[in-house]
Structure formats: structure tokens, C-alpha cells
Design brief:
Porin, 3 helices, 429 residues, mainly beta, 8% helix, 18-stranded antiparallel barrel
Length: 429
């Protein structure tokens, strides 16, 4: 026992000496570190009714508390290198920690390391990020204070020449098998090994791998993009490839105009096309083509703000984003155009500033789409409408309350009739 104690003491002294030799004054260490982050609490309260032929057949409630805390630390290594890290207190997908209040007591939440990368700026007008970082693409969400995030390990380079910025990245590992809303529809796919099974919606037999693969994280991703900021018009073009899974590109244009002193208008047009590899499409029992087009107009005149948006998807499929919050799809509150077939999706918002920091809005969304692209597919018509009161107490503290309805009709028969409510508080620093 004594020998062990002496060895432990020697080891402790050695470690202490090493730490002291490499340490720097606390004041200097703190001076080179930038800290930022966010804290979000969200309360959801939904009461769902399932109906058949106009009669309620079941009712249930879904009430939950949601938390997400993000802490960003950026440390200057030298004049050309910064180290960036992001820690998240939340869910496993870098989103909310969802605590169900109906059946469970209070629980603790995990802490995860979301980002850990070096930013190199030795080349003029260029930044090269190396390491574990957010996937900065129109198909993914790199940073989100109140949602899940897509991350990957690799290299992303951004360089600016005049009004044009070019981007190129390669990642050999991502969290796309666990985070996001697009790829879960592909989770049954693995490389073709010749096993023949019957698949739902396939209209026959399909080829699947012998072992399910629920994680696309090992698939390599390559991405390139061009962004042009031409005064009032912003143009961008992107291409992304996921090895052995799909190729996709997107084009968009955004413009903003000041019509008068207290009047402005914004326009957006976006087109996305995604093509699945033949083996993936076959395994899923669907066509390989997916596309989406969106046109949106928003504006504000004095204290009144409004927005109208229309989105349509391909008859063969509308899988155009890897997360429902990404730019390359359209999201309402509970409705999305992502991964829908032959969709027509309308959104409308009109609001008024009651005070400079208090806005009341009425929101409406309606999407009509097919259950799939096979013969006899049901026609679905989903509709949501809700009121939202947004209060910006200060620059770094924002809260809103929502309350509304969500309905779904299948071939004209109402089958879902939900009442939904939400309270959210967000603090940034």
C-alpha cells in the first residue's frame, strides 16, 4: 500500500510540474477566449383526436418540457489559427432534450461536444475549417438554438473574391443517420447483397441488405457552392454528393427592396433537385427523382407585416433536404414539404406590431399531397392555423406563445383534429 501511495505522489508531482511548465496566466488565457451561446426552454401541449367517418375513435395528450443550452468557445491560437468548440446540453441529435411530463418525473440532461475544429486564416480572404464542425449547406442546419443540428468531421474552405464567395468541403463522417428529417426515410437501405424481400409500397419484391443500417454517418459527403451578393440580389448555387446514396443541387435568388420610408418587400425563388442512386431508389420502392420549387413574398408597411409562400414538389418525390429546418425545404409549424409527393403547399402570415417589441400574427398553412407515387395512393390534405404573440423584451431575450389547430383529411375524410399550444423563451449571450 505504501509503494502505491509513493508512486501516486510521484506521479502527481510530475503532472503538476508539467502543468505548471505549460500554463499561462489566467488573465492571458481568458483574454484570448470568446464566449457566446444560447439558452432555450420550450413547453409543448398537444391534444390529439383521431377520427374515422366523422367519429372520434381515440384521444391522447402529448405534454413535454424541452431544453437546449449551447456554449460556444473560440480561442485564439496565434495570428492565423483559432480553435472553436461548441458544447450542447440537450438531446443526442444536438437538439432539444425532451422531457415528457405525462408519465415521467424530472430528469437530468446529457452534455455533448458538438464542434471541435481549427479555423485557418493564413490565406487572404479565405477561411479553412478543419475538424468536427457544423455542416454549412442549404440541405442541413449547422447551428440552431432551438432545433437539432447536423455536424461532420472534415474540411470546409470559404474564400471571397469581390462580391462572390466560393465554398468547398469534404466530410468523412457525419451525424446524418441520427440527426435530421430527410435521411430517416432511407434508413432501411444497405448495399445490395441479393436478399429478396417484400417491401411496403414497393409493388412487389425489392433488394435489401442482409443487415439494416440505421446510421448514414459513415457515408462521405462532398459539397461545393457559389454565393453572389450583388447589392439587392443574393444568388447562390450548390451541389452536394453523398457517396453511394444521392446527388443533389440547388439554385436560389433573394431580393429585398425599400419601397418607401416605412415600406419594404422581399422576394425569394428556390429550386432543388435530388437524385437517389438506382440501388437506393429500388430498395425504397420509389423513383430516383425528387424536386422542389418555392416562391415567396414577404414585406412590411408601417406596423403591418405579411408573407405568402407557395411550394410544389415532384410527383415522384419531394425529398430535398436532410433536415426540415434547412433552406432547401419549406416548413410551417407542424407541416413540411420535405419528402412529400406531388405537393401544393401554401403559407400565409399577417401580423401587426402592437408595440415596438410586441407582435401579434395570424398564421395559415395548407398542403395537399399524395401518400406516395404508386397507383391508388391516397390524397392527403393537411391544414394548420394558429395565432402567435411574440415579445422581444430585450436584444438578447425573446419569447413567444402559439395556439392553434392541426387537421388532416385523407381522401376528403377528416382523420386528425389536433389542438396545439407552445410557449418558448430564448436567451442569447
Amino acid at each position: 500500500m505504501r509503494k502505491i501511495s509513493k508512486l501516486s505522489l510521484v506521479a502527481a508531482v510530475a503532472v503538476a510540474g508539467f502543468s505548471t511548465a505549460n500554463a499561462q496566466p489566467l488573465e492571458e488565457a481568458i483574454k484570448n477566449v470568446e464566449v457566446s451561446g444560447s439558452v432555450v426552454y420550450r413547453y409543448n401541449d398537444a391534444k390529439a383526436k383521431d377520427k374515422l367517418n366523422g367519429q372520434t375513435i381515440s384521444e391522447n395528450a402529448d405534454v413535454n418540457n424541452n431544453y437546449k443550452i449551447a456554449l460556444n468557445l473560440s480561442s485564439k491560437v496565434n495570428d492565423y489559427v483559432k480553435f472553436n468548440s461548441r458544447f450542447i446540453v440537450g438531446g443526442a441529435d444536438s437538439g432539444f432534450a425532451r422531457l415528457d411530463t405525462t408519465d415521467n418525473g424530472d430528469q437530468n440532461v446529457d452534455v455533448t461536444l458538438s464542434n471541435a475544429y481549427f479555423a485557418l486564416t493564413a490565406i487572404p480572404n479565405t477561411t479553412v475549417n478543419v475538424g468536427k464542425q457544423g455542416l454549412t449547406t442549404p440541405w442541413t442546419v449547422a447551428v440552431d438554438s432551438d432545433g437539432n443540428e447536423q455536424t461532420g468531421t472534415g474540411v470546409l474552405a470559404l474564400t471571397t473574391v469581390g462580391p462572390v464567395t466560393g465554398a468547398a468541403g469534404y466530410f468523412n463522417q457525419t451525424n446524418l443517420g441520427k440527426s435530421g428529417n430527410g435521411l430517416p426515410s432511407l434508413n432501411s437501405y444497405t448495399a445490395n447483397t441479393g436478399l429478396v424481400v417484400t417491401g411496403p409500397g414497393a409493388g412487389g419484391t425489392v433488394l435489401l441488405g442482409t443487415t439494416p443500417n440505421d446510421d448514414f454517418g459513415g457515408k462521405d459527403i462532398a459539397v461545393v457552392g457559389l454565393i453572389g451578393d450583388l447589392d439587392f440580389v443574393k444568388l447562390d448555387a450548390w451541389y452536394l454528393n453523398m457517396d453511394d446514396v444521392f446527388d443533389t443541387y440547388s439554385l436560389s435568388a433573394k431580393a429585398n427592396f425599400d419601397l418607401a420610408e416605412n415600406a419594404k418587400i422581399g422576394l425569394e425563388a428556390r429550386y432543388v433537385q435530388l437524385e437517389l442512386e438506382d440501388e437506393v431508389a429500388t430498395a425504397l420502392g420509389r423513383d430516383d427523382k425528387n424536386s422542389m420549387f418555392r416562391f415567396a413574398v414577404d414585406g412590411k408597411v408601417s406596423i403591418v407585416n405579411a408573407k405568402v409562400a407557395y411550394t410544389t414538389t415532384d410527383k415522384k418525390g419531394g425529398l430535398t433536404a436532410l433536415d426540415n429546418d434547412a433552406q432547401n425545404t419549406t416548413l410551417g409549424w407542424n407541416l413540411t414539404s420535405n419528402n412529400t409527393f406531388d405537393a401544393d403547399y401554401w403559407q400565409g402570415v399577417i401580423g401587426v406590431d402592437i408595440l415596438d417589441n410586441l407582435n401579434l400574427s395570424a398564421n395559415y398553412g395548407q398542403i395537399k399531397h399524395k401518400e406516395g407515387n404508386f397507383a391508388g395512393a391516397d390524397t392527403l390534405k393537411d391544414k394548420e392555423y394558429y395565432a402567435q404573440l411574440t415579445y422581444k423584451m430585450s436584444k438578447n431575450l425573446n419569447t413567444y406563445v402559439r395556439y392553434g389547430k392541426l387537421e388532416e383529411k385523407v381522401n376528403g375524410d377528416k382523420q386528425v383534429d389536433d389542438t396545439v399550444g407552445r410557449l418558448q423563451v430564448e436567451y442569447t449571450f
